[in-house]
Specification:
Length: about 350
């Protein structure tokens, strides 16, 4: 048994030496091991037919649920708390009394030399009312006799409502062809998906707005970039949610039926207007301007400039004005050979 093991080891060493000798001889005679054959990528476009089709553009966005902030009850002129009509957590209607505040009617008259101290100025009670229906908060530390500065917030009345808010990456704003009306909210590890009524679509305000969506591993949250916009929708009243829970919004941003469609890769530009290369029956090519509509990321609607049956080049060649040689990248340095 030992003899066969020794013979096998010797064979391995001999074969290794033969391989090394082949490489050494190849270098000495100026030869080289032929590199693997390079396969050229086919970047040429092929004609595709313009057809009638249907396009539905949808976006899926990370979202966060927020309780409506409510409205503040302010003592505009300050004063002294005289009476509390409700307590912390009370449910009130619009116009319900919240707090009575004593406000001085005017300044006390000045006292002359030797005169008695002036009497305290007359006061009047002012009632502060709920600006909207909802739940009262902020009264836990307010007591009768407290002195309020002008403009002090006495309480807040917030409706028992929630909204889902999603940050939209700036480039995805091109996908909104109209105000979205078909929005579906799915809460992570929560109840089944439910319709969410559109509320607003606007620019992200600095320092405000929705909290960023859940960050990906090793990355930042979706709402942490500069620019973009926020989409918000009303969470249904019968859907159990909590402030801060996260989920996703499936948003229909546009739809078109029985329209001319081509692959997005066959068009230079994807919004409003673009260019295609039309291929004639004899093979000649013509660059033609077209007007564009809805896109789902794969197909795009052509509203003007083409007809059913036209043939366009896909993918469309790069615009010559941008198809310029790049900077020369030096070849990777080969390892130095040891003499």
């Amino acid at each position: 048994m030992k003899k066969w093991i020794i013979i096998g080891a010797v064979l391995v060493v001999v074969l290794g030496l033969l391989g090394s000798g082949y490489l050494l001889v190849s270098r000495l005679v100026g030869g080289a091991v032929p590199p693997p054959e390079e396969v050229a990528l086919d970047t040429e476009g092929a004609p595709v037919e313009v057809t009638l089709g249907e396009i539905s553009s949808e976006l899926v966005l990370d979202a966060v649920v927020r309780a409506e902030p409510g409205e503040e009850v302010k003592a505009r002129n300050g004063g002294t708390v005289a009476h509390l009509w409700v307590g912390e957590g009370a449910e009130v209607d619009t116009g319900a009394p919240i707090v009575n505040v004593k406000v001085p009617e005017g300044s006390a008259p000045a006292a002359g030399d030797g005169a008695e101290a002036p009497a305290a100025p007359a006061t009047r009670e002012v009632t502060l009312y709920a600006p909207s229906a909802g739940t009262v908060s902020g009264l836990e530390d307010v007591m009768v006799g407290d002195v309020l500065e002008p403009g002090a917030v006495v309480a807040t009345v917030a409706p028992d409502e929630f909204r889902a808010v999603a940050s939209i990456p700036p480039n995805d704003l091109y996908r909104f062809y109209e105000e979205p009306r078909d929005i579906l909210l799915q809460i992570d590890q929560g109840p089944p998906a439910s319709e969410c009524a559109f509320l607003s679509l606007g620019s992200v305000e600095g320092g405000g707005g929705a909290a960023p969506a859940a960050p990906e591993e090793g990355g930042e949250g979706a709402g942490s970039g500069g620019g973009g916009a926020e989409l918000s929708c009303r969470v249904p009243a019968d859907l159990e949610v909590f402030d801060g829970v996260r989920g996703k919004l499936s948003v229909s941003t546009g739809k078109a039926e029985n329209v001319l469609v081509v692959p997005v890769t066959a068009v230079r530009g994807n919004v409003d207007a673009g260019e295609v290369v039309v291929v004639a029956d004899d093979g000649t090519e013509e660059t033609r301007k077209v007007e564009l509509g809805v896109s789902d990321g794969s197909l795009i609607e052509v509203t003007k400039g083409l007809s059913v049956g036209d043939m366009v080049l896909d993918p469309v060649p790069l615009d010559p004005r941008f198809d310029v040689p790049g900077e020369h990248v030096p070849d990777e340095e080969l390892p130095m050979e040891v003499e």
